[in-house]
# Entry
Amino acid sequence: MDRHDIFRKFNEVDDETWLNTLKNSVKSRLYDDVVLPGFPSEATQTQFVGSSNEHAMHEGFNFFHYVKAYASALGWPVTCNSKILDFGVGWGRIIRVFAKEVPPENLYGVDVDPDILKQCELNGIPGRLSVIDPVGRLPFEDDELDVVYAYSVFSHLPENVHRHWIKEISRVLKPGGVFVSTVENHRFVEGLTDPE
# Structure
């Protein structure tokens, strides 16, 4: 499989067609002559993102769509030349969605879990994936990346680690680059407090 097959085949298709293709890839990775990325077990998917298969792909696609629209609104539209980092790539749910817009040499993913990155490799997740230390350094030069996103990563980090990674992400983003992160909402935190 050529690493560029997905980008070449799907770059010109509309987003709805791409979403349906991703959802169908749960049952069959082969689309015409292109092999799409595979999936880890449903248990692994759910452990990392709270859902699996078609539902997980739909959630990942919605986030992809949001990042694209937000970056465009800020004057940084996602193009084939964009350098994009999935911070906390997990099993590759979201980075695979960006493979339609960005060739694999410009897609990056990092995670602290070497085992999940092995799963990504086995499943043909596009991009350049790297293991990082929990409080380490990102494998990029200063001002190298256009877009960095972190889907539900910072909700799981203590404050000192959170601050470390915000500084590090700021270092690798180009001036004016786009950073999109999700965290649990306030109602979630309120639900964790002792009612007494």
